[in-house]
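Subject: for your reference before the review

Hello V.,

The reviewers asked for a structural picture of the protein, and I figured it would be easier to keep everything in one thread rather than splitting it across files. Below is the amino acid sequence we used in the manuscript, unchanged from the supplementary table.
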Amino acid sequence: MFFDRDPSRFAFSVRPSFFKTKPTMLKRNFWKLTLSLGVILWALTALLPLSDRPFADYATSKSEAKTAEFAALIQEARNLAATKQVTSVFVGLKKLANQRGIDLTQYFPQYPIESSLGNIEKRNTILLDHLLEKSKSDFKLGLDLKGGVGVTLEVDEKAADADSAYVREAKLKKAIEIIGDRINSFGVAEPLIRAVGTNRIEVQIPGINPTDNPEIIDNVKKPARLDFRLVHAESRPSTIKPTDVPAGYEVLSVDTDGSQGGKPETLYYVVKRVPEMSGKHVKRAGVTTNTYGQFEVSLQFDDIGAQDFGKLTTANVGRMLAVVLDGKLYSAPNINTAITGGNASISGKFTQREAEQLAGVLNNPLDLPLVVKEQYVVGPSLAQDAISSGLRSAVIGTTLVAAFMITFYTTGGVVAVITLAMNLLIIFGVMASMGASLTLPGLAGIVLTVGMAVDANILIFERMREELALGKSLRTANESGFWKAFTTIMDAHLVQLIICAIMIVYGTGPIRGFGVTLAIGVISTLLSVLITAHMVMDWLIGSGFLKKLTMRHMLKSINVDFIKYGKPAFIASWIVVLLGVGVIVYKGDRIYGIDFVGGDVVSIEFTTKIDASEIRKVAAANNLGEVTPTYVSSLGGGKEILRVETLSRKDGDKTENPLFSALVKAYPNAGLKNVGESHIGAAIGAEIKWNAIIAVALSMVAILIYIAFRFEFGFGVGAMFSSLHDILMTIGIFVLFGHHFSAPMVAAILAIAGYSINETVVVFDRIREELKENPTGSLKNVVNAAINKVFARTIMTSTTTFLAALSLFLFGGGVLRDISFTFLVGIVTSTFSAIFVSAQVFYWWHKGDRSHVDHAETKPVYEWDATSKASK
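And here is what came back from the structure prediction:
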């Protein structure tokens, strides 16, 4: 990044010429302009269309050959769906095409389906799956905002009858983990998976229709028993079914797709019933292509598996070895040579989608056989008024932040708002491209990101204010202020990225999802502020359009001895922390909500539908704690049922469910009838809780290492202490006010760690600068001077984020209030700790002696920092 090092010529120009400066500015900012516009266009492309299009309408619009003939087929499929002969137009079209042997690819010449794939049904499946996927919007809403589909899986009692209760419970927990891995491998975002009773698993998936995507449910419940079985030595594939089957063998078949000009056919093999080896020791499965471009599933065995497979293939060179998954034959290749390296492959002329699904199942084999007990449509878990209030609060929060910036920074504030809009566009665009679902808690996190995003603009503007106060020109102040704030912004955001990486690598479920979302926000902020906003400001000033930047003060300069008040403030804050920890220990598991400890679910029939928000009000009025109401109905129609999740009652309590009793009392004419109750397990298991603790611990270590490397070890210790202080205090105050931990709260607490380090780096960067500019001052004077200079700036940055969180708290409801309450507490504690914890710990670490700091290796600013040159 370069700039004019002699801007004085502009100071004496009466009317700066736009045309004279334009070529220079364009050349200097061409790459920024190209990158900014490219990112904006990409984000818009990723977001559109914002809603799903009906499959029938989309498929008809994409047909480019024999359009009238295809439209007639679509109409037939519509009629089948309308008369309930099929579950959807998608299924009806596939059924008609396969029954009549119609190759649907003839209507879509623009899609080059492999010509070597002779099996018409497979060609149709590939085409229809592609059309279905493209008809769906990439911008997805979560279960709480849009609902989805659910399926209840039950243990196959016949197959699992020999298992003890303890073994079955362990297998059920393992099955929940495996199902989560499988669903995530299909690209489904934020599913809900939990135990129901002692023998069932409930799976709820946002944005998926099982009638159009039956493979999702099929692959969820597959045990995935992989066997390697020898084919009879004298058996060869043929199209005629053998009549004489030797003892201990069975006949299995595999369909060919008629590739290489042949006809589709079924080949039969005489396969040994008892496998020579199972897939128990498969370490990893993946998708590869062979020399003919066909998809295969590659297998990598562990040490035991590699040894066993080597023995098997060595002893049977020349024979065929059948690959059988759940009793279905996939291929029966010849063993041409011994395979001793621990790697093998399954070939079956799969489509890419089939190969990926097979690999996903093999990577996560289920020991517990499951059957589908129930499939149903799930309504949004939040009432429409809660969704509306959440969206309204997000808009209000963003508007408040924008108004704040424009009020205090005028034209600069407008630039910040423009880049904020770009920031949001990038976040939503990346989420859409990744297939991530937007939930209401996720929206709250984005609103918090809005507040944090303008912090970087504030840091630059406040540095510009200081440069202007020294009498520098607006152009010089813009460049100098940008570069002086650059290192602070980079350090704060890089630490946040490190914390995000830890969440993604070591976290699971909501922790990993939040880590990804936060990382997107951090990167988009860097792009929009450091590149786009700086480019716009450079153009406004260089072109002469902006001759004066009005900036109002929120606070006047202060001169406070913060070191003097540091110790009592530090002690007082840690007393609050210890009090909160004490309450947590006293309450024990009572601090957890349904997501952590499970609960009860009561199923209620009704004649008059009750709004979900009213159900929550009844629960609150009767002090029944957390409740989650949803309306569900069977696929293909059926009576709608109200299901309400509540906290568990005491063991042995056989009385009527207290929430049901309260609803009957509040709505006596609603025709409420309790049709069943069951216990649901935790959606967040012990593994996720431990992973959250590990993620926090690793984040503390990462903060210590990074800040010590970029600044000095004493700074690292101070940053670690302040982050830990903020997390513990936020949790303590959260519990003191009677809130319960839910899945979104884990992410909210981890957000505080990122925000805390952001505030701390601002103070540390100024202390580092004061150490260089005041080489003879005492450490006490240096720290005090640094805090006094950044105090107003720190309050400004905290205010923007506080306004965003406050709007969620005042105008949101339900889970939004819990999340925003956490944000509000975290913002206050982070601002406090940046001044009275991190800076004080740094001071005490060096025992107030500057010589300790001077002897330490204080890291320089980035080599490309041009501050000193720009300000001369």
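For the response letter, the relevant points are probably these. Residues 210 and 554 are 56 Å apart (CA to CA). The two ends are 18 Å apart (CA to CA).

Happy to draft the paragraph if you're swamped.

O.
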